[in-house]
Every structure is written in C-alpha cells, then in structure tokens.
Amino acid sequence: MIWLGWRQQRTETVIAAAILALVAVILVPVGIEMAHAYTRDGLSHCLGATQRPLCDELVGNFQQRFDKYNSLVGWFNLVPGLFGVALAGPFALELERGTHRLAWTQSITRRRWVATKLGLATGSTLVASAVLIAILVWWRQPLVKLDGRMDNGAFDAQGTVILGYGLFALGLALAIGALWRRAIPAAMVAFVGYFIARIFVDTWLRQRFITPKTVTWPAGKDQPASLARSWVFTEYPSNAAGTKMQPVPRACFSGTHAKCIVRPGFGYMHAVFEPASRFWALQGIETAAFGVTGIALIAFAGWWTLHRE
Amino acid sequence: MSAISTDALGKRYGSNWALRDCTLEIPTGSVTALVGPNGAGKTTLLKLVVGLTRPSEGTVEVLGRTPRDDERELMPKVGFVAQDHPLHAGFTVAEMLKLGQRLNPSWNDDIARRRIERLRLPLDRKVGKLSGGQQSQVALTLALAKQPELLLMDEPVASLDPLARREFLNSVLEAVTEHEMTVVLSSHIVADLERVCDHLVILSESRPLLVAQIEDVVASHRLLTGPLADAADVARVHDVIRASHTKRQTTLLVRANGHVYDAKWELHEVDLEEIVLAYLGYGAEVFEVAS
Amino acid sequence: MIRFHLERSGVPTYLQLVQQVRQAVRLGVLEPGDQLPTVKEVVGTLTINPNTVLRAYKQLDLEGIVEGKRGVGTFVATDARPVPPDDDRKLLRTSLERWLQRARAAGLDDEEIAMLFDDTIRPPAISRVA
User: Fold this and answer.
1) Neighbouring chains of C at 3+ CB pairs within 8 Å?
2) Contacts of residue C39 in chain B, CB cutoff 8 Å?
3) Cα dist from A205 to A111, A192, A199, A208, B87, whole Å
4) N or C: which terminus of chain A carries fewer CB neighbours within 10 A?
5) What is the pLDDT of residues A33-76, one digit of tens each?
6) Measured between alpha carbons, how far is B120 from B133 in angstroms, rounded to an integer?
7) Per the CB < 8 Å rule, is C10 touching B259?
8) Considering only CB atoms, which chain B residues are within 8 Å of A8?
9) What is the ipTM, given to two decimal places?
10) Per the confidence metrics, is the pTM higher than 0.90?
C-alpha cells in the first residue's frame, strides 16, 4: 500500500520538491552574499553593549542593502499553503475519480488505505515544511542577529510555525476535498481559506496569545534595552502626568530618537510590546493552534471518507 | 451453501429506496445474472455485497461473513469489477498489476502475466490509452489474479462492442472452468446471458421479481395464444406473467405449473430475453408477478 | 472431433449439446474411443457456462454414450449403442402406429398430434419444473 501511496503522490512530491528548489535557488545566492557581507563588515561587533565605531553606518548600509529581500521572503508565506494543498491532491483526486473503490475492493482494509494515504500526505507536508524552515532560518541568520525575529515578517519564517501552517493547509484541503470530491476547486478554496486564516492570525490573533508587556521611560532618553529585538505594537508619548499625547511622526522612531523628542511637553515614552524572550512561547502557541486544527481536519477527512459510503 | 444470501435487504439514499425487500440466495459455484433496467438496484445490491455501502435494513451474508464488518477476512476472497472499471489512468499496465500484487496477499502473478500476454496488452502502455475493452480486461485480470471465491461484476460488458463483449465473457468463463468460483454479473443487456449464466435474478424498481435457475425459467415459461378469452382459467393453475389482447386473440406469457391441457391454447417456447422483458412489464399489463 | 453449435430456441443449451453428440454418434461422425472437446474448449468456442457443458457430459455419461476419464478427458464409450437394434425399433414403431390410430379416432388432426408429441417429448422441461 505504501508503494501505491507513493506512486499516486509522485507528481505532487515532485511539485513540492520543485517549489523547494525554487526557494533555494532564489535564497541561497543572496544568503551567501548576506552572510559574507555580515562577516566582512564585522557586524557582529555592533551587537553588544560596547559598539565599535561606525556601527550605525555599517548596520544602516547592511539593512538598506538586504531588507528589500524581506518583502520577497514575505511571499514565501504562501509556500506551506502550496505544500498542503498540493499534497492533499492525490486523496481528493482519488475520491473525485472513484478509484478509491478499486483499492477498497482489493484485500486491504479501508482503514489501512485511509491511514496510509493520509499518513503519507502528512509526513510529506511535514518534511517539505521542515526543509523550508531550514532554508529560511539559515538565510535569515544575519538579519535575525541585527533585527531579532519577533516582527511578523521574521516570525512567520522562523521556528516551528511553518510546520503548523503546512498541516493546516493540508488538513483544510483534505477536508474540503473529502466533502466535495472535486480536487481542483477544493484545492483553490482551501488555499484561499489558508490565506485568510494566516492573515487573521498575523494581524489580529497573534498579539492576543499572551498579554503584552508595557514599558515606560523618560522622554529624550534612549529606549530601554528590553525593547531591542522585541515586537513593539505601539509606542506613544505622554506628558509628565502620564496623559497620552499625540504620537510623534513615525520617522522619529528610526535611529535618532533624541532629536525628535525635543518637542516640549513630553514627559515620558510608553511602549506596548512582546519581548524577544517570548519568541518560543508564541511560536509554540501558534504552531499548536495551526497544527492541532490541521490534524483535526485531516482526521475528519479520514473519518468522513470511511463513513460516508 | 449459498455464496450470497440476503434477507429483507434494503438500502435507502435520502428518501429513495435503491433496493428493498431483497431476499435471495445465490448458490456457490453458480454463474448468476442480475438483470433489470437501469436504476433497478443492481449496482446497489452489488455494492452491498462487496461492502462498498452498508444496508439500511435487513442483512446480507457473503461466503458466510458480513461485508464491511468482516472486511479483513472477506475481501481477499471477493473479486470486484466495478461499473466502467475505474482504473488509474496514469498507471501503466505493469503498474496496475503491481498494485494488485501489493494489495492482495493471495495474488497470483502467473495468472495475471499470462492473461495480459494472451490479450497482447503492452505492459508499458498507460491504462488511460487502452480501449474500453482492454481496460475491462485489465480490471478483470486484477480481479482474477486475486483468485477470488466470488467474482462480482457490475455491468462489465455494457460499454463494449460485440466482439470485445464476447472476448470478455469468454475470459470470465474460462476462469470459471479453471478455478472454482461463484460469479455474479449485472447487466441490462439480456442477450448472451442465457448461455453464459445458469442462474437469474430479475430486479425491477428496487425489488427482486424472480430468482431462479435459468434452465428452469426457460423450460417453465410458455407463450399461449388462443381466441380472445379471459386469462382467469389459466391463471388458476399457472402464473400469468403477461397478458395482451386483440379483438380476436389473447396472448399469455405464463409460468406453467405442469402441462397446459386446454386445447384451445397454442403453445410456443420463448427465449430468455422475451421472458425477462415480460417480467419487466414490457408488452402489456402485468397480471400478477410470480415471486 | 465434433464441433458444437448453438441455436436460439427454447431448447436448453445442455440439451442441444447432448443431442449433437447423440446425433454424431448415430451418424458415425463420432466413433467409440473418440475424444470430445474439453470443457474449456467448448466454453472458449461457444462462450457458454462450463456448468452447462459438464451437465451435458454428465447426462451423456449416464446414458452410456460417453465415458469421462479423470484428468484425461471425455471419450465416446466403446460400447456406445445409442441406436436401438432393428428388432426393438420395429416393435416401437408398431406400438406408435397403434397409438396414432387411437389419436386420430379421438379426433386429433396431424398438426395437433405433432404438437402433442412435441410437447411431450421436449420438456423433461415443463413437467419436471412443476
């Protein structure tokens, strides 16, 4: 049965491998260049409390040069969705064409057939997602050292969440495919569903996983160290009594705070943020949320297929 | 012992009964034809037997076991050729055989290879590129190489031209000659069945009308023609399946219980197709239906 | 070797095979010791149910016209004598003629007699079923 499962998943496995190859082709040269630039410019010496001279310029240069790739990598958020939807294909196609009845009238049990097919799809999705994680994590190393990995663009491409995304997309495509028995439309709907779920979590849910911290510091002074590499939701000024005031223009947040904050009346600055130390806690929650939903959907697809006829 | 035995078997889809009140026995070693118009419940009955669906009411027992519940024990003994024989179009013939081998512990690769060779099917040809007749032969090969005790086929020849049909039936019968097995095949085409099958089940409107040995069916049915008359006299002794009248003449198709002595009736033999059509209500008002 | 054929009629298939062998033996087409086609061959050429062929051969065996040799095949019996000896035939003919006279006396015409005869001779069928 495992042979059959692989044989039927051949095209989709090739598609997943091709997507990974494409990601690698795009990222590996830039990654090598970036790592090279990072060591050449000695940027590691700019990270500590005691910074070598010209660090602002060097880091600024580096960021200007490589940050544009961040938006490119943002597109790779779609990739785990593609994996899931593609690898759900063989199952949905089989139901659409009715060829599952051929397998069911051989000597193996239906349960074993469903378990093997879904198990292979799940395993392949996890492997493909893991490879994607490896590429993305390797690629981003220098940027993570400089900027941290807490903002959405980095967080989505780090740690374990991609495993959850893959499982979720797979589960969604399998469940819709099992219900609808039309492979292509099911894949399209599942992909749209995946996209909506991701946007919902990125923009609304994730910041509610753990109650954020707040920090206050006197205006005109440097940001406290705890904000570095953290995920800052809002930052606003107040007067000496603590009453919130109009925030300064956004431009003031980059680099040279002190010049901006000369405006009269500001007593304190406040920030609401998730500290970098919560990275793994947030990753864990989000991976579990997507992963458990995905596995539940996969289980539903199997159960429905077994009990429908 | 019966290979298949059903008791008040029924299957409902939504509010429609696809099969109802189906009680029948199909003897071991028989070649049984399941005939009836499209939508009469043939496919449903076969699906219930092979466990692709569960009964809504009643029971079905196959080779002494309950389909679906005894899946693990039963399925290795049952070969199934589904309607329009769905195969993996992208697989080569060789890969289809490999599928059969991987999924069936009782697979006999010799049987499979020999059949494919004799049919001159190229092993590296994609199944989707084969003709309908060849595809059905591949499906049959898959079912036969499993060495089943019971072979079920749903409309196996409906989409085939006469030559392919004859070849297909020949393959089935040769397999029956070589290995003991019970065969049930459904068909809405009655021609050919008389020689191929020895038992007959007529299904109509989701219910079985007649379950009998074909030889008995042919031997016991007669067409009576005579002057215009009431069929009541005849009906007292024999089962009148169909009666039609013109101004002068009455024609009865009866299942005779013994001799027809009344000299006013002229007796004619009828072939199976005519009998089946009569049961299915073609030709005239159905007087009563023998069960 | 005999080659079977089938006619579309009400005569059961197995009976057609039986009749064809009887006929062939009677006409000398088949001689004692000749082999009949194997079940598989008959099935292959006529596309008929093997049980039908087996049944026909069994019937012929019972009648003593053929002998089945296990694992080898079916052969025309060495003492196959399907044709009654001349004396017997004369006797039978005489009694049939007497019966015919009785039938005509009862008012049956030739066609009716033929029908009655057909009806009686053909069906082990009709009466057997009942």
Assistant:
1) B
2) 177
3) 36, 18, 9, 5, 46
4) C
5) 999 999 888 888 887 666 667 888 888 888 888 888 888 888 99
6) 13
7) no
8) 88
9) 0.87
10) no
